[in-house]
Design goal:
The complex is a heterodimer of chains A (276) and B (272).
Chain A: H1 21-45, H2 56-65, H3 67-100, H4 103-118, H5 121-131, H6 136-160, H7 164-172, H8 177-188, H9 190-215, H10 224-233, H11 237-265
Helix pairs in contact in A: 2-11, 3-6, 3-9, 3-11, 4-6, 5-6, 5-9, 6-9, 9-10, 9-11, 10-11
Chain B: H1 4-7, E1 13-22, E2 26-36, E3 41-45, H2 52-60, E4 67-72, E5 91-94, H3 106-116, H4 121-134, H5 150-162, E6 168-172, H6 180-197, E7 200-205, H7 208-214, E8 217-222, E9 227-233, H8 248-270
Parallel strand pairs in B: 3-7, 3-8, 5-6, 6-7
Antiparallel strand pairs in B: 1-2, 1-4, 8-9
Helix pairs in contact in B: 3-4, 3-5, 4-5, 7-8
The chains are: A mainly alpha (276), B alpha/beta (272).
Chain lengths: 276, 272
């Protein structure tokens, strides 16, 4: 995608960034395999004991052997992450819309949204367990708390940076506040909203696993965090690594889904979606 | 539809004693008196910072003067557009950049003003297609702005301005960013549209050549504070093909405007 590439007649500019799936998947998978092989080799050569670092081959065989158990955990974690992320997306955007309505509202309320940015989850988690059912509810709540702020901040940024000339245009045609929001400010904010959701997708998975880790003591969830908690206690690092890989996979899928949504929504805009 | 006939007539503008001050001390406009008869093509010419865009925004009602008055021929333009009575938003505005919505197709961009006025889909599709046809983009309706050249984007912007059948068309250096040939084509097209549609046009530019080619009358403004230093008719025939650009009369009109521009600039520099 060099900038100086000549434009060919009939080739739409947006096609340039759309490589085949293979072209996008092969490089990172290659890196993964290489890193795993190097780790395998080093651990064997340096005789690193298994209670410090398990062999990648051992991790993969554990994953294969415990695939059903891991799948159940992954699904439990995925549900909580999706609920938390979904709540962040919807409530975050709504909060941003409210905040964008007036400077006074923004001054009065925005500082309190920083709470979500800075809250030490470890400190709040016991409250979540007291207030909510210590399974899916408190875990998705934890995912929500950790992931909502970037949605609010980015959406608000997008809603407040509408091109003034377009605002004038809507003013000239006497568009009401609802029309301005739906037909101008919200669609114009889509690039920033996608950025917010992308950050939130990763944070939601982190929030879920950490939440599970903390409520895991109660043994009321089967999520990956609980699995990690239990495995660490017994020194089963292969299970820990297998669970971490599964959680990463979940984060990757969520991140890619948001990216796909962004490409879909922004496919007719120009450079923005090709830059990634 | 009572009154719909008068709505399609062009509208005149009366500006008296208008001043606009920004930030308490920057006098963008000062003592502006200007009457634009209905149906006239007026060019406002001036260097950057002379307040010509500010004046245009005041006429559009996007900004208010600090003193003085701006009146349009009748009260209609300040009223909300009735959603059912007619599609004539009285004022249309074309910005320096095309200012299209990138998530909408060309057709849906042109439909926008009618959509905001509450017109039904069938009617607005039809009117938008007609407006696009008028600017020569009848076959680009399903494209997106990112797929268009600068000149095509500007024509979509023009179609969007015309789709409401405005009585007053305000343009703020609309073709300034385009290459010379595209600009001349669009100048041609704009003049044809003005003659065919019976509009009042106020066209802001910093190009003496563009002003001389387009307008029936030109005013030249000086910067800081923005004042009118010359108000002159452009005495060229109503039929202005490309050939007119090489006539002595055209060159004379351009020289006259250029001299006024220069004089306005040096007067501004002489002021402390």
């Amino acid at each position: 995608m060099s900038a100086s590439r000549p434009a060919h007649a009939g080739q739409k500019p947006r096609d340039r960034g759309r490589d085949s799936l293979a072209a996008r998947v092969v490089p990172p998978v290659t890196v993964f395999i290489v890193v795993a092989l190097v780790a395998e080799l080093l651990i064997r050569l340096l005789h690193v004991p298994e209670y410090l670092l398990p062999l990648p081959s051992k991790v993969f065989s554990t994953m294969a052997a415990r695939r059903h158990e891991l799948a159940v955990s992954l699904w439990t974690t995925a549900k909580a992450a999706l609920i938390g992320f979904g709540a962040s997306a919807i409530l975050g955007m709504l909060a941003a819309i409210v905040l964008s309505s007036s400077r006074l509202v923004r001054r009065a309320i925005y500082p309190y949204t920083i709470f979500f940015q800075t809250v030490p989850l470890v400190a709040v988690a016991p409250l979540l367990i007291i207030w909510f059912d210590p399974g899916l509810q408190s875990v998705s709540m934890s995912a929500f708390i950790v992931s909502v702020f970037p949605v609010i901040a980015n959406t608000l940024d997008g809603l407040l940076s509408t091109d003034p000339a377009l605002v004038d245009l809507f003013h000239l045609y006497r568009a009401g506040p609802i029309a301005r929001l739906w037909k101008l400010r919200l669609p114009a904010a889509v690039p920033q909203i996608i950025t917010g959701l992308r950050v939130a997708s990763g944070l939601a998975v982190i929030g879920t696993v950490v939440g599970e880790f903390l409520v895991g003591t109660l043994g009321t969830s089967e999520g990956l965090g609980v699995k990690i908690y239990g495995a660490v206690k017994y020194g089963n690092l292969d299970i820990v690594f297998a669970s971490v890989l599964a959680a990463s996979l979940l984060g990757l899928v969520l991140f890619a889904a948001v990216g796909g949504l962004g490409r879909l929504l922004l496919r007719h805009w120009h450079a923005s979606q090709r830059a990634q | 539809m009572p009154g719909s006939i008068s709505h399609s007539a062009p509208v005149g503008i009366r500006i008296s004693g208008v001043a606009r001050v920004f930030g308490g001390s920057v006098r963008a406009l000062d003592g502006i008196d200007l009457t634009v008869p209905a149906g006239q093509f007026l060019a406002i010419l001036g260097p950057s910072g002379c307040g010509k865009s500010t004046l245009l925004r005041l006429i559009a009602g996007l900004d208010g003067p600090d003193s003085g008055t701006i009146e349009l021929d009748d009260a209609v333009p300040r009223e909300p557009v009735e959603s059912t009575a007619h599609d004539h938003a009285p004022i249309s505005y074309v910005f320096q950049d095309a200012q299209l919505l990138p998530w909408r197709t060309v057709l849906r961009n042109v439909e926008l003003p009618l959509e905001l006025a509450g017109r039904n889909r069938t009617a607005r599709r039809e009117l938008a297609r007609a407006a696009l046809h008028r600017v020569g983009l009848g076959d680009a309706v399903d494209r997106y702005p990112a797929q268009l050249s600068g000149g095509m984007k500007m024509r979509v912007s023009l179609a969007r301005a015309l789709v409401t059948r405005p009585r007053l068309l305000l343009l703020d250096e609309p073709f300034a960013a385009l290459d010379e040939i595209t600009r001349q084509k669009l100048d041609d097209q704009l003049r044809d549209l003005w003659r065919a549609m019976g509009l009042t046009v106020v066209f802001v530019t910093h190009s003496t050549i563009e002003a001389a080619f387009l307008a029936q009358r030109a005013i030249v403004m000086s910067p800081r504070p923005g004042r009118i230093v010359l108000d002159t008719p452009i005495a060229l025939p109503i039929e202005r093909g490309n050939a007119i650009r090489s006539t002595a009369e055209f060159a004379a009109a351009g020289r006259l405007l250029y001299a006024a521009l220069e004089q306005g600039e040096s007067a501004a520099e002489a002021r402390p």
